[in-house]
Amino acid sequence: MTDARRTQGDRLSETEAIERAKQGDAEAFELLYNLHKRRVYSLCLRMTANTAAAEDLTQEAFLQLFRKIGTFRGESAFSTWLHRMAVNVVLMQLRKKGLPVVSLEETLEGDEEVRKKELGALDPALAGSIDRLQLQRAVETLPPGYRTIFLLHDVEGFEHNEIASMVGCSIGNSKSQLHKARMKLRDLLKTSRAEKATKP
Question: DSSP assignment, residue 71?
Answer without folding.
Answer: G
